[in-house]
From TrEMBL:
High-level lineage: Bacteria, Pseudomonadati, Pseudomonadota, Alphaproteobacteria, Hyphomicrobiales
Record protein name field: Transcriptional regulator of acetoin/glycerol metabolism
Gene3D superfamilies, alphabetized: 1.10.8.60, 3.30.450.40, Homeodomain-like, P-loop containing nucleotide triphosphate hydrolases
Organism whose genome encodes this protein: Xanthobacter agilis
InterPro entries registered for this protein in UniProt: AAA+_ATPase (IPR003593), AAA_lid_NorR (IPR058031), GAF (IPR003018), GAF-like_dom_sf (IPR029016), Homeodomain-like_sf (IPR009057), HTH_Fis (IPR002197), P-loop_NTPase (IPR027417), Sigma_54_int (IPR002078)
PROSITE patterns documented for this protein: SIGMA54_INTERACT_1 (PS00675), SIGMA54_INTERACT_2 (PS00676), SIGMA54_INTERACT_4 (PS50045)
Length: 653
């Protein structure tokens, strides 16, 4: 029988044999008996890396923001592995183990399975956000399988670090059709419980993921599926080879194994080097003879080529059904664009930048543009919303904490956002909501450029550029004693005041621009002149957030080929359009006042509109704040703020 899945060649040795081999290895014997070859190779690498086998190895989890970014980067892998994670989940729950998905570096992305074992695994930092690379944590199934590029089991004392002896783990790397490792699946359980099928289950799951990677992935190319046994065609055990003009360009492991090839065959072998006769017609099932002399059942398919849309031709809209509405590219008026250029220059010179503006005016987008245009673009952008975090958590979120610093702290400690921003940009959103005691600690970090985690530990030097944002008038807060003057002068060395949308020039052009952009290249539905005028005139208390949200709704409502009139507008816009002056006239004076942070420029009309919009949303959501905030497209904390400022409003109990 031809080998279809590369096997894990770790022999089974008794715990006693492993303990003895371990003892001899650490007494200086380089090749003791009683230990599998891949494990011995790994121990030898660990010694060469200078890793200690006793004591604790550093297992520092990433902060929430960085983990989110790494998960986003691996989103397609996570999506493709979901069915396997779910299938293995049931087995893991029964056998008291955990299913683990990592990225190609060994960083744990997701874990599912037995809650009881998850607790014990957390003690040795087998947690999302921790890297289990061999060079950091020593011999372990995840890291060592990645180094060896093969499925591998590591049980109990085979782990390099003594502390990991409680684990028994089976892992298999996931390879893409070009032979590159794109991730890894692992099943880990308690070492005391023998889980005989762990390796088989993981390998099966990985071969299914790898098989699915070929679905629709090679438009216009010839995909040959084959196996010695016809009943395996269409399953994850079939061999798959992809040819471009008869040249082998991609493959799966069973395909290469059946023909005795390695990954170096890609690009170097042609169809005629591998099979006798011609390639055959797409869709035809037939027998082929490999040049190694095996008779195989084969099926050729040609995946439909994707027709590239000529750049000048707009994409045709689908005949029916809602179109996905694209997110608009950030766009700034000339003055804001200039301010952005200046802000980047100052940031490069080490000057902190403060961005002020009403909710939804684009403070977050502006700061991300600064990051993207600065020399720190490839480095972290660590954002923390000081208003959204419960007061008790901001401190640990920013400064991190040591192992077991307080009840509920992750056992392996937490790095904290200040250190996560190292080398990049720290974005402190809603800085005006930072509690006074924390302001003092932040000031010390800015002065000394080092962070001391909660629960003690050595101060760690940090290098980040600081960008802060707030909708509040910080100067006023300073005067009122709610914000430290020394911190204010440190963070507000250059202030950008983002204008409210209603103060931007040429809003009709803005409506047209966003309307076109939201169509994402497809022909935009027609927007009547009256509609454009109403949209351009409205005061937009939620600024860009509300503006973009409204345009998205209108896009989704539009019939292809139809025209949208003002009747399609939400009630508050329709009503406000009716109250507005006639076309061509400018909005009333209070609304035209130059922007001042903290809503100081808001006229009574605008506040009334804001209040009415909020009340309508709350009524529609039966008073549910979170739901109403989502409906309005604002953060829950922003809604709370508005409610607190509304005369006569009572907090929901
Ligand atoms: N200049 C812009 N160009 C395009 N879209 C924008 C722009 N500014 C804001 N937006 C849109 O508005 C939404 C809100 O923007 P952002 O989160 O940057 O506002 P903010 O001022 O930080 O709001 P808040 O104070 O409530 O946190 C974004 O998701 C984006 O869709």
């Amino acid at each position: 029988m031809l080998q279809t899945i590369p096997s894990c060649d770790a022999q089974l040795f008794s715990a006693q044999a492993v303990a003895e081999a371990r003892q001899r290895f650490f007494s200086g014997e380089t090749a003791p008996q009683g230990i599998a070859a891949p494990i011995l190779r790994s121990w030898t690498r660990c010694v060469a890396h200078g890793l200690p086998a006793g004591g604790r190895l550093p297992a520092e989890p990433l902060g929430a923001g960085e983990l989110r970014q790494r998960r986003e980067k691996a989103e397609s892998l996570r999506r493709r592995c979901r069915p396997e994670l779910e299938a293995l989940h049931a087995d893991a729950a029964v056998t008291g183990s955990l299913v683990i998905l990592t990225d190609p570096t060994g960083l744990v992305l997701d874990t599912v399975g037995s809650a009881d074992f998850a607790d014990r695994a957390a003690k040795v930092a087998l947690l999302p956000g921790v890297s289990w690379s061999e060079s950091v944590l020593g011999t372990n199934a995840i890291g060592t399988a990645l180094v060896e590029r093969r499925p591998l089991e590591v049980r109990g004392g085979e782990h390099y670090a003594e502390a990991h002896g409680i684990l028994s783990c089976a892992a298999a790397p996931i390879l893409d059709p070009y032979g590159d490792v794109i991730g890894l699946l692992d099943l880990s359980g308690p070492a005391a419980v023998a889980h005989l099928h762990a390796m088989g289950l993981v390998q099966l799951a990985v071969s299914q993921v790898e098989h699915r990677l070929f679905e629709g992935a090679f438009p216009g190319l010839d995909v040959v599926r084959f196996h010695a046994d016809a009943s395996f065609l269409g399953t994850s055990r079939e061999g798959i080879l992809v040819f471009e003009d008869y040249r082998l360009v991609a493959a799966n492991r069973p395909g290469l194994a059946q023909l005795g090839l390695g990954w170096d065959a890609l690009k170097s072998r042609r169809y005629s080097d591998l099979f006798d006769g011609s390639l055959g017609r797409p869709g035809e099932d037939r027998r082929v003879r490999s040049t190694t002399g095996d008779t195989l059942h084969a099926r050729v398919e040609r995946q439909p080529a994707r027709a590239p849309a000529p750049p000048s031709t707009p994409r045709a809209a689908p005949a029916a059904g809602p179109r996905p509405v694209a997110a608009p590219e950030p766009c700034f008026d000339a003055a804001t664009e200039q301010a952005l250029g200046r802000a980047v220059r100052l940031l490069e010179a080490g000057v902190p930048v403060l961005i002020q503006g009403e909710t939804g005016s684009g403070k977050d987008i502006f700061s991300r543009q600064m990051h993207g245009r600065s020399s720190r673009a490839g480095r972290p952008f660590a954002a923390v919303n000081c208003a959204a975090l419960p007061e008790g958590l901001i401190e640990s979120e920013l400064f991190g904490y040591e192992d077991g610093a307080f009840t509920g702290a992750r056992r392996a400690g937490f790095k904290g956002l200040l250190r996560e921003a190292d080398g990049g940009i720290l974005f402190l959103d809603e800085i005006g909501d930072m509690p006074l005691a924390l302001q003092t600690r932040l000031l010390r970090v800015l002065q000394e450029r080092e962070v001391t985690p909660l629960g003690g530990g050595k101060p760690v030097p940090v290098d980040f550029s600081l960008v802060c944002a707030t909708h509040r008038d910080l100067k006023q807060l300073v005067d009122a004693g709610a914000f430290r003057a020394d911190l204010y002068f440190r963070i507000a060395q250059y202030t950008v005041a983002l204008p409210a949308l209603r103060h931007l020039p040429d809003r009709e052009a803005l409506v047209h621009r966003f309307w076109r952009e939201l169509a994402g290249g497809a022909p935009a539905p027609a927007l009547s002149a009256a509609c454009v005028e109403a949209l351009a005139r409205y005061s937009w208390p939620g600024n860009f957030r509300q503006f973009v949200g409204t345009l998205k709704v209108l896009h989704a409502l539009a019939d292809p080929g139809g025209s949208l009139g003002p009747e399609a507008l939400p009630a508050e816009l329709r009503d406000s359009a009716l109250q507005q002056p006639q076309a061509g006239t400018r909005p009333s004076a209070p609304d035209e006042a130059p922007h001042a942070p903290g809503g100081a420029c808001m006229g009574d009309d605008l506040q009334a509109v804001t209040r009415a919009t909020i009340q309508a949303a709350l009524a529609a959501c039966n008073g549910n704040i979170s739901m109403a905030a989502r409906r309005l497209g604002i953060h829950r904390s922003t809604l709370h703020r508005h409610l607190a400022a509304t005369p006569g409003h009572r907090k929901p109990s």
